[in-house]
Amino acid sequence: MIPRMIFMDIDGTLVDSEMKISDFDKRSIHQVIDQGTLVYLATGRKYEAARVVAERLHPEVKVIASNGCVYDCDQNLIKNPLNLEALIEAFEICQRKNLSLFFFGLSETFYSKDLPDYFKNEDKGRLVSEGEREFIKISSLNDLQNFSNRIINGIIISEDNFEVLAEIKHELRASKNLSVSSSAQNNLELTPKSVTKATAISALQDYYAVNKKDTVAFGDGMNDLEMFGQVHYSVAMGNASELVKKEATYETLSNLESGISHFLNFLSSQ
């Protein structure tokens, strides 16, 4: 069986810790594209950061970025950004709880406290793109309002206060403006209400008239669970958590073992 659409997370799914894509996975993706399959990266990364990875993989690979807030559709770029009310809600909560808040445009990173070194490190560049980057400090609500038309989505990060993250996760989920997910224990990823990777996938399935039964999604994180429900073949990487594996319909090898290619070979044999 050759799928008509494939969606794959980047970090922990397609790439290793050094941001490398295996030659096996590259060959497999090139082969399915040659057979007419549409391939999308579906990631929490900013759009321009995701495009860098897409272009390394294949010129025809398209992007769903910012957890579904931005995606390629034919020659158009569809954007569903956080509104100003949502930005203010997140900003005020993080100021009150003394947590680091980051907002992202297509290429910019906006930050409310000190900018961690890893945001400038390409080896840990999940949220930044290679090459030229722009980092903008937001110190006040006035700053936030001035830059609001450039902001797409956000993330709250705490490396040592998971209890506070859990508290504000509950608070933010009560908001009529925000959806909250997590790619790791140390973060809360913010998108507009009811906007996820799954909503972008659904819109693309409709646009390209592709039946759900002909679609595959690969992922390893909690923010991949929504898209698992929007495809027929949901595939957890071998390095995913047990919860993610439980929610998937299939499990493949890890990202370090070219798990994407192994599953695509399995499908082609069906």
Briefly say what this structure is.
This protein has 270 residues and is of the alpha/beta class. 33% of the residues lie in helices and 22% in strands.
Topology:
Layout: E1 5-8, H1 23-34, E2 38-42, H2 47-57, E3 62-65, E4 70-73, E5 76-79, H3 84-97, E6 100-104, E7 108-111, E8 134-137, H4 141-147, E9 153-157, H5 162-173, E10 178-181, E11 187-192, H6 197-208, E12 215-219, H7 225-228, E13 233-236, H8 242-247, E14 250-251, H9 259-268
Parallel strand pairs: 1-2, 1-12, 2-3, 7-8, 12-13, 13-14
Antiparallel strand pairs: 3-4, 4-5, 6-7, 6-9, 9-11, 10-11
Structure explained in plain terms:
- The protein is α/β, with parallel strands linked by helices.
- It folds into two domains: 5-79 and 196-268, HAD superfamily/HAD-like (Rossmann fold), CATH 3.40.50; 84-192, Hypothetical Protein, Haloacid Dehalogenase-like Hydrolase, Chain: A, domain 2.
- It is 33% helix and 22% strand.
- It has nine helices and 14 strands.
- It has helices at residues 23-34, 47-57, 84-97, 141-147, 162-173, 197-208, 225-228, 242-247, 259-268, and strands at 5-8, 38-42, 62-65, 70-73, 76-79, 100-104, 108-111, 134-137, 153-157, 178-181, 187-192, 215-219, 233-236, 250-251.
- It has an eight-stranded mixed sheet with strand order 5-4-3-2-1-12-13-14, sandwiched between helices.
- Helix 1 runs parallel beside helix 9 (259-268).
- The radius of gyration is 18 Å and the shape is globular.
